[in-house]
Design a protein that fits this description.
Length: 199
Amino acid sequence: MKPFNSLAATMSAAGLFSLWGCGTPARPIETGGTESITSIDDVDMQDINKAASGMLESLLVQGTLSGGKNKPAQLVIGTIVNDTSSRFDVGEMTYRMREQLVNSGQAAVVTTYGNNPEDATAQDAAKREAFLKGQTSVPGVDPDFSLTGKITQVKREAGNVRQATYTFRLTLTNLRTGLEAWTKVVDVTKQGTKNAIGF
């Protein structure tokens, strides 16, 4: 009996190792590329890339930023609400837009402005400098535009097929007039019965 038990144990262990070996080994892929995982109930990196690209193209074609008092236009990133069940950082979208706007000289993003500054330390330093110079406002900070937005979703099912539409909306407000200077909506719709690799 002992040889049989020993053989069975060896075969079981070999079976477990073969199961472990059947997984797909990790490897680098293009971020948001055609090999990325596409999930129905969540916003994926390729969705964020599509939204950022569509927003940026519209904003540049419109040429609204060139109408600012400052050259380049001073831009404040306001609140962008994620009103979906998918938890992700909306900064992933705005940073991709900012990178091209700032690096191309189209805009200068003010990070020390408002009640919730992106860089509170820099804001405090600027306020202290202005106070020591007897100034009532921080010199050089005179924003032209504010960017705000909202991301929403609509989900539907038919049998075992699920569908989700994520709507990305951004609005650029002229801070001197209080008027909406530019707005854009980008929809991303995904459908299927389960998550998949590639799209």
